[in-house]
Amino acid sequence: MMLKSTMFATVALLGLAVPAAAADAPTDPQIAHIAYTAGVIDVAAGKQALARSHNKAVRSFAQEMVRDHSAVNDKALALVKSLHVTPQDNPTSQALTKQADAERAKLSHLSGAAFDRAYIDNEVAYHKTVNSALQSTLIPSAKNAKLKALLETGLTLFREHEAHAEQLAKTVK
């Protein structure tokens, strides 16, 4: 079941990763919305983990996700405001939100070690997917240099999150 929901997020974001003609590439307002949505999703997942987990390492990771993704989203909001750009909702953002809602609902029925394991496994898969989309599609498609720079900074940080989640997955039983 975990694989199925993770697969949905992967399909949603990999739809972006397919090399496309310039006319089919996401626009800066769409990229801003996708990136912001991805951050909101991980903040919500982190808050769910903080509410449900008693594992010190899982809680520490969740706090890191809430802190870091909130900070990046705050910077993104300030950037789009300064550029007078309105993020544009799009099918990728909608698919990510739908999948994340389903994942949070599934996790809400778990507790203890089962919750911790499912949360961390999802974080590993989610960061791999988002990082891949950032690297292969969102960053190359961004036209605005400031947006591109923010996405690149986010990718560096989110690669660290992926590595942290992978390390944690080895210890959470």
Q: Which features would summarize this protein structure in a list?
A:
173 residues, mainly alpha, Ferritin, elongated, disordered N terminus
The biggest beta sheet is recorded as:
none
Count of individual beta strands: 0
- Count every helix, treating DSSP H or I runs of 4 or more residues as helices: 6
Unreliable spans are 1-12, 16-22
What is the CATH top level name? Mainly Alpha
CATH fold node name: Ferritin
CA(first)-CA(last) distance: 18 Å
How much helicity do the residues have? over 70%
Mean pLDDT: 89
Content-based structural category: mainly alpha
Radius of gyration: 16 Å
Supply the CATH superfamily name. Answer: Ferritin, core subunit, four-helix bundle
Overall form: elongated
The CATH architecture would be Up-down Bundle
How many domains make up the 3D coordinates? 1
Order of helices and strands: HHHHHH
**Fraction of residues in β-strands:** under 5%
